[in-house]
Amino acid sequence: MTGDEVLAIFKKTGGYITGSHIVYTSGKHGEVYLNKDAIYPHTKEISAICLEIAKKFKDKGIEVVSAPALGGIILSQWTAYHLSLLTNREVLGVYTEKTSDKNQIFTRGYDKLVQGKRVLVVEDVTTTGGSVKKVIESVRKAKGQVVAVCVLVNRDSDNINSKTIGALFYPLAEVKMQAWEEKDCPLCQKNVPINTTVGKGREYLEKKKLED
To answer: What is the fold of 3-211?
Structure first.
């Protein structure tokens, strides 16, 4: 499965939005958005993507697949499932959970399942790489070995890579998404309406209303 094929699945399920006015989590504005939540209900497509991940790592001795909650849970389960079939042995699928201080830690005793194991970390979309780094830290804290990180789409190949992540890093697809500060946003200057269905557009407009 090529990067274009992965992006085609995003487009097919309505998860690749272009020509809009998006407010990103960072506060910057842009016209492209990857709505990862749109692909998760489509189990056939998610299974196919995770099979592709499993094929890439079937000879790496992976014993556990880990991901950050929430969406990553689905990826870890499907990838572990396919790895188990491909290697004819059980590969576990676990996940970390977000704490009040926005960390990603193992709960439910999953740290014990990671201890001493070869771990593949999976994630849907990397924007800053923050969640992935926190999962890596939790795996290592639990004395697991991070073999590699695999993500569906990397949004910033210049700043998110094996060196910056701190582990071998494999994106299935890459998308360059230009983002502007609000004051420099050409969409704002043209009065293009803010998209309130994805991203942080709704919160942005509510904040603007309070400021006015």
So the answer is: Rossmann fold (3.40.50)
Confidence (pLDDT) at 120: 98
Dist CA 38 CA 181 (whole Å): 26
The residue among 57, 111, 102 whose CA lies nearest residue 80 is 57
For 163, other C-beta atoms within 10 Å of its C-beta total 9
**How many Å apart are CA 72 and CA 75, to the nearest integer?**
5
Between CA 128 and CA 157 the distance in angstroms is: 10
The answer to whether the CB of 55 falls within 8 A of the CB of 86 is yes
Tokens standing for 144? Answer: 């697991």
Query: What torsion, rounded to 10 degrees, do the Cα atoms 117, 120, 123, 126 define?
Result: 110
pLDDT at 205: 93
Domain boundaries, the chain: 3-211
Low-confidence ranges of the chain (pLDDT < 50): none
Cα 75 to Cα 21, 47, 207, distances in angstroms = 29, 8, 34
Q: Are 141 and 160 in contact (CB under 8 A)?
A: no
What distance in Å separates the CA atoms of residue 111 and residue 81, rounded to the nearest whole number? Answer: 20
pLDDT score at 68: 96
The pTM of the full predicted model, rounded to 2 decimals, is: 0.90
